[in-house]
Amino acid sequence: MSKAYGEDVSFHRKAFLMRIRKIATGGLLLALYLVTLSGCISQVGLRRFATPPQPALEQNEGMTVLDDGTIVYTQDRLEISLQVLEDGFLNRQFASASNQGAESTNPYTYGNWTPWGQEWTPSRFTVVLLKVKNYEFPKVFINPDALTITSSNERIYNVLDEGLLEDHFSPYLRAYAGIQRRQFEAITDQLRRSVYPPDMVFSGQEATGYIVFPVLHKDVDNFNINVTDMAVRFNYKGEPVETIDLEFKLEREIYLALHPREENQ
Predict the structure, then answer these.
(1) Does 40 score more than 50 pLDDT?
(2) pLDDT per residue over 173-227, tens digit each?
(3) Per DSSP, what are the bridge partners of residue 132?
(4) Which distant-in-sequence residues (6+ apart) come within 8 Å of 218 by Cβ?
(5) Given its phi and psi angles, is residue 111 left (phi above 0), alpha (psi -120 to 50 degrees) or beta?
(6) Per residue in 5-34, pLDDT tens?
């Protein structure tokens, strides 16, 4: 075999191998591209949802967690109970005001209304049930507007007091009469009757009511509800001389999905 012929064969072999290598590399890149594209497509439409808040396993001293998710602080014969309520519970509490679709007048939820193009009802507020049983002190006072929610990622939520809640429902006030006016009055009347009252709880008395916060952001998975400056002893002028700060710890799971889990609906 001549030298020129051998070199020619070697050249063609190298060219052939280079073409094979390019084809293999191109196929690998295409496969990687398709995998990446399929992963991106699988993420399209996903939203961030949160499971209902539950008491954290570890609470501060004096706290007890009940089976229904209530956290109870006990000091002798004084009990302070706190529970974050789900929309389903609130809809059952105000059943007749929760089944009118967009016309529902439940002050704490959107009832059975769903936005256009969506199959689930969003939350309107974060609602907390606060109970006080005072069989220990002459009188106890909790200012409901002073409660706060603080999250592990440093978000802070303040209570929506009566004025802020009425502002929230002010779109109903498009007229001084008619259906929308009656809806506004029905909502605000239920609020006044069910929110926690800013009153003294005297010895032998109990108090209960709802505390309303804004909806928590979907990046909040651990948070505390803070009851600050609960007054339990007063001087002769009625001024607090002994106060207690309470911290109720809660947590929830954040997840990505096309729809919320059934427990959220």
Answers:
(1) no
(2) 655 566 777 888 889 899 999 999 999 999 999 999 999 999 999 999 999 999 9
(3) 80, 207
(4) 48, 49, 50, 254
(5) left
(6) 455 545 555 555 566 566 555 555 555 554
Distances (CA, A) of 188 to 92, 106, 185: 18, 10, 5
At 222 the pLDDT is 97
H helices within the chain, ranges in order?
Answer: 3-43, 87-93, 162-168, 179-194
What's the rounded Cα separation, in Å, for the pair 104 and 253?
29
N residues, the chain: 265
**Of 75, 76, 78, the residue nearest 205 (C-alpha):** 78
Whole-number pLDDT of residue 242: 97
How many Cβ atoms are within 10 Å of 149's Cβ, its own excluded? 23
C-alpha 215/C-alpha 233 separation (Å) is 34
For residue 59, give both structure tokens.
């609470």
Cβ 230 vs Cβ 243: under 8 Å: yes
Q: What residues have CB less than 8 Å from 93, skipping those under 6 apart?
A: none
- Residue 104's CB is within 10 A of a number of other CB atoms, namely 21
Backbone torsion region of residue 54, taken as left when φ is above 0, otherwise alpha when ψ lies between -120 and 50, otherwise beta: beta
Tokens of 9: 């064969």
Using CA atoms, how far apart are residues 21 and 176, in angstroms rounded to an integer? 80
Letter string b/e over residues 194-220, b meaning 16 or more CB atoms within 10 A of that residue's CB: bbbeeebbeeeeebebbbbbbebeeeb
